[in-house]
């Protein structure tokens, strides 16, 4: 299905980037991973245009999902967060560190992109900080995946492992690991500060 969709987009000519961006936004809102589409953008459009279109699409998709979560589906998002303890810790961290936490979690594979959009919608982060930090935080992954996609010979071979793109995947994993460690330290420190503050109030 995805291969047919990418082939269809590839043959749309002038409309290809526009349709690609719309499909990416819809996928993001519906909690469908955009990894395959990002790879496809590298093959269909090439490195630089692919990075541009994916960056626009992922940022717009993240923004639309954020606005839906904040204003239209807040109750549903809260119920989802209650079942995922690691996301519950984000709220208090965002209240103090805002865009830093948003940017770091965008780099970390522990926090899936599509769900983060909704998770951040019920935090105290401002729309401006959310958009800017999301855009910057998603850029390394966007560039890496689009580049890997641009190495593919055709849609059938998209995502297959080669020595070159395997090295890139490991680099991306390393960046994600470092971001995960940093954001965990941030959240742990902020949680400790909040706990110490509560204890001090009771003394």
List the helices and strands and how they pair.
Elements: H1 2-10, H2 16-29, H3 35-45, H4 47-71, H5 74-82, H6 85-97, H7 99-107, H8 113-119, H9 127-150, H10 163-202
Unreliably modeled segments: 194-203
Helical region count?
A: 10
How many angstroms separate the termini?
62 Å
**Largest sheet: number of strands, sense, barrel closure:** none
Strand composition percent: under 5%
Quick synopsis:
79% of the residues lie in helices and 0% in strands. It has helices at 2-10, 16-29, 35-45, 47-71, 74-82, 85-97, 99-107, 113-119, 127-150, 163-202.
Q: What does this molecule look like?
A:
- This protein has one domain.
- Helix 4 crosses helix 5 (74-82), helix 4 runs parallel beside helix 8 and helix 4 runs antiparallel to helix 9 (127-150).
- It is an all-alpha fold.
- 79% of the residues lie in helices and 0% in strands.
Q: Any descriptors?
A:
10 helices, 203 residues, single chain
């Amino acid at each position: 299905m995805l291969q047919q969709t990418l082939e269809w987009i590839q043959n749309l000519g002038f409309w290809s980037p526009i349709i690609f961006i719309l499909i990416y936004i819809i996928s993001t809102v519906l909690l469908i991973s955009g990894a395959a589409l990002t790879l496809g953008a590298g093959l269909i459009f090439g490195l630089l245009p692919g990075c541009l279109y994916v960056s626009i699409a992922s940022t717009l998709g993240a923004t639309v999902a954020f606005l839906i979560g904040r204003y239209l589906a807040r109750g549903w998002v809260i119920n989802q967060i209650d079942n995922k303890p690691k996301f519950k810790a984000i709220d208090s961290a965002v209240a103090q560190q805002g865009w830093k936490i948003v940017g770091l979690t965008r780099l970390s594979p522990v926090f899936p992109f599509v769900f983060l959009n909704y998770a951040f919608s019920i935090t105290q982060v401002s729309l401006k900080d959310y958009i800017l930090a999301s855009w910057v935080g998603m850029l390394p992954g966007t560039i890496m995946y689009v580049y890997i996609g641009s190495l593919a010979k055709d849609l059938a071979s998209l995502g297959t492992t080669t020595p070159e793109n395997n090295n890139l995947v490991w680099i991306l994993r390393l960046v994600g690991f470092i971001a995960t460690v940093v954001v965990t330290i941030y959240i742990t420190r902020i949680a400790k500060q909040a706990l110490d503050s509560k204890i001090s109030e009771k003394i």
